[in-house]
Amino acid sequence: MAKLRAARADEAGELSALVLRSKAYWGYDAGFLAGCAEELRVRADEVGTRRIVVAEDADGTVRGLASLEGDAAGPTSRLGLLFVDPAVIGRGVGRLLYRDVLRRAVALGARRLLIDSDPHAAGFYRAMGAVPGPGAPRGLVRFEVAPVPLADWARAWTGGGPSVHVGNVAEFNAQFGDPSLDREQRAAHHYACLAAFYGPRPAALVLPLAVSPGWARLVGRQLEWGEVEVYDALAQAGPGLSDAVRSRPALAARLTQGAPVLVPWGLTEPFGRLSGRPWRARDLRYESKSAAHALFGRILAAGGHPGIRLPGQWRAAGRRQAVRLLSARVARGESSVLKSEHGVGGSGTTYASPERVRAAGGVRALVRGLPRGPLLVEEYVSGPAGADGPGDLTYDGFVDGAGRVHTVGGAVMDVVDGGYRGATVGPGVVPAAARGPLSRFGAAVGRELAEAGYRGWFDVDFVVDGAGLLAPTETNLRLTGPSAAFMVAARLDALRGAGHLVRIVDRVELGARLPVAQADELCADLARGCAALGAVFVPAIPTGAGDPAPWLGVLVAAHGREALDAAEALVRAEARGIGKALGLDAPEGPPSGPGWAADADGSASAERSGMWFSPRSRRPRRVCG
User: Fold this and answer.
1) Residue 20's closest CA among 7, 10, 32?
2) Which residues of 363-486 form beta strands (DSSP E)?
């Protein structure tokens, strides 16, 4: 890896020669190069004022240079030079220099970076996240970037440095004992892959299932993490990830030594033992949907939230009482939402309009499919008639160790029949009229959570009613899909310039079950295809590719809505067509053949060859991004 340092005045001649060699790489003839030699010359007395930095390899050979030019006190800076020795083009030197220019522009306080690019280099700047701008000099292509530091909330979340991410999704769910949740917690183990995005930059990932080294490398490369340690296959058969780590003393010591920041999906008693943090079950009481509803009522009773209204909610001790409550509402022509107390991601949630009740064969038939135990009957809030705007919003924030509430932002969720399918975050996503009420009420909930002793990430979910009012429906005292999108947006903004829209899609159906190597190849192809559209593709959940109904969880990002939508459409189309492209049909039973191995229970999992570490290994796979 090349290293950066400030250029010296006595190198001016050597740097000028490198610039011309790099320019010649594009096939320009001698006459053209002679004509622009004076313009491209690096003068000894300008090395400092042009803020030139060079990249040199291990033996001290200079392999590239970049300059950051403009008034130090002005809002606009300019990338004046960025040239790489042809011998090392394609090895990351240009990327290293470009990211350094952005970092230095942030340090100068520049709000706008101009780039006048040779047409042959335009693809590089697009890939780096620069967007086309007006006013290019003749023969050049102009780009602009809005340099920004890592968001304040992101620095506060992990202290600004790499953190250890523990994918204890199943462990978090299991502590509530909710009958709507899968006892095997297989889906939760898949979603634990979102541990890659529990913070803007991980030092280590701790996962229950085995993951592909190719997946980790691609994610690290897309988000430019550098080296990340991966500890996987630690709790494939049960929810006890934190205890599985503790049962390996050397691993537990490695993850906790030096007081690193350990970030879980959610707080649990086993994670408290692993991390040494105090654990009190009552701190999570507002994960309960009925307790959260009562909290919302108390906040609204105190006043100050005119844009918010609370939907009615009634608690039923069991199915029989739920039938009575729902029957009365159906008789009045009212629609309802039936919920379990702790179902996550829409599990245990059913929409019950009078029409749906009739189609199901009556109230009893509908309720019969719900979990036993307490149920909640909630007023169904319908959005404006014929409106195309978002109907489901979420506010994300967190309470830090000192009890301070940090607002992260608002997102638009994709929800169908009460089931969450994904979310979009970024500037302008939440309608302007909703931003103030959403932020104020979300922060008020955060203050109540802090007062109750909770420390960590939380969100508040809303639906929008026919008058445009926001109706809060639940809190989640844990990380979520939208939180992963916020983390990726913060990272990409710092790397590529402000203004990224990021969409997380929980499930993209695949046209065939894929062995590990083919799933990795598909993801690499999708990354290249999205880059050609000016977007970034990040595979978020790769382990579902071998399920009987195969799928991927994905993140896509872009600076504009058109590119974002085009990237999602490309991903869905390529994923659906993968079976035909490979000449595969979806198999009836567990997949077999190269790349697959049968587990003891007859199910299929990715074969751990020499590229994989044993689940009992205390050594990580080191993955370079």
Assistant:
1) 32
2) 375-379, 392-399, 405-416, 419-425, 456-464, 470-476
Q: pLDDT-derived band of residue 2, with 50, 70 and 90 as boundaries?
A: confident
- Cβ-based neighbours of 370, under 8 Å, separated by 6 or more: 180, 319, 322, 338, 340, 348, 350
Residue 371 domain flag: no
Q: Which residues of 454-500 form beta strands (DSSP E)?
A: 456-464, 470-476
Residues 6+ apart with CB under 8 A from 352: 326, 330, 335, 336, 337, 338, 363, 366, 380
Cβ contact 374:365 at 8 Å = no
- Nearest Cα neighbor of 442 from 388, 481, 394 is 394
Structural domain boundaries enclosing 101: 3-145
Could you give the CA distance from residue 360 to residue 354 in angstroms, rounded to a whole number?
Answer: 10
Find where tokens 């009615």 sit: 312
Token digits for 94? Answer: 């240009």
Whether 8 shows a pLDDT value over 90: the answer reads: yes
What's residue 446's pLDDT? Answer: 98
Tokens of 483: 């939180």
Question: Tokens standing for 462?
Answer: 């809303």
Residue-level pLDDT at 342? 85
Task: Say if residues 273 and 246 touch (Cβ distance below 8 Å).
Answer: yes
* Residue 374 confidence class, pLDDT cut points 50, 70, 90: confident
Ranking 242-256, 295-309, 349-363, 494-508 by mean pLDDT, the lowest is: 349-363
For residue 54, which of 31, 33, 81, 72 has the smallest C-alpha distance? 81
Domain containing 124 — which CATH number? 3.40.630.30
Q: Which residues pair with 262 in a beta bridge?
A: 164
User: Strand 470-476 vs strand 419-425: parallel, antiparallel, or unpaired?
Assistant: unpaired
Residue 484 covered by a domain: no
> Considering the domain boundaries, does residue 168 fall inside one?
no
E-assigned strand segments in 75-111: 76-84
Instruction: Phi first, then psi: give them for residue 353, nearest 5 degrees.
Output: -85, 160
What's the pLDDT at 100? 96
Contacts of residue 403, Cβ cutoff 8 Å, sequence gap at least 6: 450, 451, 455
Do the domain assignments include residue 213? Answer: no
Q: How many domains does the chain have?
A: 1
- Write out the two tokens for 49: 């004022």
Calculate mean pLDDT across residues 510-530.
95
Nearest to 54 by CA among 24, 9, 23: 9
CA distance 145 to 496: 7
**Cβ atoms 293, 310 nearer than 8 A:** yes
Which two structure tokens, joined as six digits, stand for 617?
A: 């290994």
pLDDT for the residue numbered 346: 65
Least confident of 143-152, 244-253, 338-347, 488-497: 338-347
* Helix%, strand%, coil% for the chain, nearest 5: 40, 25, 35
- Are 326 and 336 a contacting pair, CB within 8 Å? yes
